[in-house]
Amino acid sequence: MKLLVTGGAGFIGSAVVRLAVARGHQVVNLDALTYAACLDNVATVADDPLYSFEHADIRDRAALDHIFATHKPDAVMHLAAESHVDRSIDGPGDFIETNITGTYNMLEAARGYWVGAGRPDGFRFHHISTDEVYGSLPSDPEVLFTEDTGYDPRSPYSASKASSDHLVRAWFETYGLPVVLTNCSNNYGPYHFPEKLIPVVILNALAGKPLPIYGDGSNIRDWLYVEDHADALLLVVAKGEVGRSYNIGGENERTNLELVKTLCAILDQKRPKAQGSYADQITFVADRPGHDARYAIDPARIRDELGWRPSVTVEQGLERTVQWYLDNEDWWRALQGRSGVGQRLGVKA
Ligand SMILES: NC(=O)c1ccc[n+]([C@@H]2O[C@H](COP(=O)([O-])OP(=O)(O)OC[C@H]3O[C@@H](n4cnc5c(N)ncnc54)[C@H](O)[C@@H]3O)[C@@H](O)[C@H]2O)c1
């Protein structure tokens, strides 16, 4: 299959690119290379004849038309987005332009190409989204996000992703564009940009800095190893039913405080401090405005209909992740100087 992957120089997109090439797919990586991108994320496939790169912005419709005409993809996997909730609180404009208008441009460019090619049956537009579109769950562990949960986004980021999901469904209903959608829980793993919780905790711990926990640390997230997400995405783009969405999650609910304590325990084993535990560096800081209390995915549809299951437990995945950061200091050091990294963002109410 020839895949056009947007956002393939980011965290999840690069995992998709690496896995797709390893499985023998041709991949065109379209990325604007924003602050969140790093071409080193795809260095292992950069010289592979199956891989090519297009430096382009999804806000630029003419560039998208040119890329579709040049590469003639069998499927689009659309991951390019502004993705950091805290940045969306400080500057929502980029989220509106990239996540909503950019997705609109992708849909129109894909539709023009698909119609021009005679509406091939096998074409897919796979929109990659988040569970954050569903809002916040109560603490009752029986209550989970299903594909039928109503949308209730509460941050500029999640509202922009919800808007893009609605556009994608509208292009299916109105124009018949063969779309599939996925909504995934929080990812973690190698190449996670060092402004997100897990890399911040690992890198601050190693630097002897405070490990910031928003509020009282009771917010619950459902964690999924990024390579398992990439595997699920390649399954959905190939076998997902047109017009449907699939929730993807690891069934690994943890409070932020539990997660940080687990990371500290792994670091205590792998790189013991001269005295005490990394957990001694935990510091509670002002909460994020509108911080959703709990996200948790019911992955029954993708499990029962497509046979997908995550390959690692959260303990195995976190252990691999910590080891990866210990082994790849050059990668993360190069990103720490980027704008906003290491600063507290998103505290404006
Ligand atoms: N990180 C998560 O836990 C998570 C969970 C569920 C869904 N998602 C979704 O998965 C996708 C990828 O997330 P991520 O964490 O890898 O994000 P990321 O921020 O690491 O990467 C985003 C990539 O998109 C590119 N990009 C941004 N704006 C662009 C534009 N205008 N034109 C072209 N490229 C642009 C960036 O350069 C970057 O390479 C997003 O759509 C996000 O909403 C993320």
UniProtKB/TrEMBL annotation:
Catalytic activities: dTDP-alpha-D-glucose = dTDP-4-dehydro-6-deoxy-alpha-D-glucose + H2O
Top-level EC class: lyase
EC number in record: 4.2.1.46
Record keywords: Lyase, NAD
Top-level division of the source organism's lineage: Bacteria
Cofactor: NAD(+)
An individual GO BP term: nucleotide-sugar metabolic process
Family indicated by similarity: Belongs to the NAD(P)-dependent epimerase/dehydratase family. dTDP-glucose dehydratase subfamily.
Designated name of the protein: dTDP-glucose 4,6-dehydratase
